[in-house]
Amino acid sequence: MKFTIDRLNFIRQFNNVLRAVPSKTAIQILTGIKFDLTEAGLKLTGSDADISIETMLPVTDEALKLQIESTGSIIITARFFSEIVKKLPEETFTFEVKDNLQVTLTSGKSEFTVIGFDANSYPHLPEVSDASQLEFSADLLRGLINPTVLAVSAQESRPILTGVHFLINADGLLAVATDSHRLAQRKLDLPNVEGNYDFVIPGKSLTELARMLADYQDDVQLKITDNQVLFTFGQTQFYSRLLEGNYPDTTRLIPTDSTTTIQIDASTLLASVERASLLSHESRNNVVRLQVNPAENMATLSSNSPDVGNVEEELSLSSLVGNELDISFNPDYLKDALRAFGSTEIKLSFTTNLRPFTLVPSEDAEHYIQLITPVRTF
């Protein structure tokens, strides 16, 4: 097995596959990336058993400058190999497998020899050939993942909450995530959807997928089976296992009425919460307090730390309607929600100081909602 390839373009594709490779695992072979070289090009595969990424570097891509002398397959320890290739001196390098699975990397006057592993020992990727298929634009998929994945649980005690719940039917697509302290829900109108789909994708998988799609502009194909989902885009295939179990009914968590509402620019509120959290992070309970006074058409944000000091700031509201309110919450949850909204007007709706409050964009309230549970301070 021997080929020569452009170093920088190779690294870009290799790093995408590296996202699936675990830094620590009991299964030694999964710390490697599988190389499959055919006359058509070089296929790279990485997996941690939950996520598998496979990408093709075709010989027809002129930017790769891929020259194939002999085909074959081998597994290389991923992270060590990555560091070597990054530091090679020339624009291209040559990869050659010699006897006893020894791999020689040559670039200019530099030559490395590393030990490879038998490609037959690599686990097979899941079969999803008979799966149902949907198609989304990459922009739409990013706009679905980023605002919801922030609310998945980091606790493995309830594994189903570590994923985003997808419901797809004739009404469109609904994506929901919650860690029981906050909730994020996104709705999309999808014309001409046939069939009903109900599945939960791990948040970790979606985070890596969104990063890979950051610069991708075309459509993404989605295939679903009972326990796997496959995203195909460009020359890359991204597999993820699905979480087993029934996702809790979250519709009952979202209040249908409110007693106090304020409207404010999301980026303005984010800046105020970030300032307040400078003090709250120095306190044991990490809480920020919001006081709403309709009589004076005023709302203030405050926080204090017994060891450091306190901060109080009046908010610049677009509107305020309803009753007096004094509520406390975790500022980190609110910051995550506000970052997902970006720079837009949002409406915050409250019922009481002990019940969850909601954030929605002023102009698209029915398609996107964030919910945060307050903190009891008395």
UniProtKB/TrEMBL annotation:
Q: Which family does it belong to?
A: Belongs to the beta sliding clamp family.
**The keyword Cytoplasm is assigned to this record:** yes
Which residue intervals define the domain DNA polymerase III beta sliding clamp central in the entry? 138-249
Q: Name one GO biological process term.
A: DNA strand elongation involved in DNA replication
What is the protein name for this chain? Beta sliding clamp
Tell me where in this chain the DNA polymerase III beta sliding clamp C-terminal domain is found: 252-374
What superkingdom heads the lineage?
Bacteria
Question: Does the record bear DNA-binding in its keywords?
Answer: yes
Where is the organism placed in the taxonomic lineage, from the top?
A: Bacteria, Bacillati, Bacillota, Bacilli, Lactobacillales
One Pfam annotation, family name?
DNA_pol3_beta_3
GO MF annotations for this entry?
3'-5' exonuclease activity; DNA binding; DNA-directed DNA polymerase activity
Q: How does it assemble?
A: Forms a ring-shaped head-to-tail homodimer around DNA.
GO CC aspect terms: cytoplasm; DNA polymerase III complex
Provide this UniProt record's keywords sorted from A to Z.
Answer: Cytoplasm, DNA replication, DNA-binding, DNA-directed DNA polymerase, Nucleotidyltransferase, Transferase
Q: Which residues form the DNA polymerase III beta sliding clamp N-terminal domain?
A: 1-126
Q: Where found in the cell?
A: Cytoplasm
Q: Could you tell me what this protein does?
A: Confers DNA tethering and processivity to DNA polymerases and other proteins. Acts as a clamp, forming a ring around DNA (a reaction catalyzed by the clamp-loading complex) which diffuses in an ATP-independent manner freely and bidirectionally along dsDNA. Initially characterized for its ability to contact the catalytic subunit of DNA polymerase III (Pol III), a complex, multichain enzyme responsible for most of the replicative synthesis in bacteria; Pol III exhibits 3'-5' exonuclease proofreading activity.
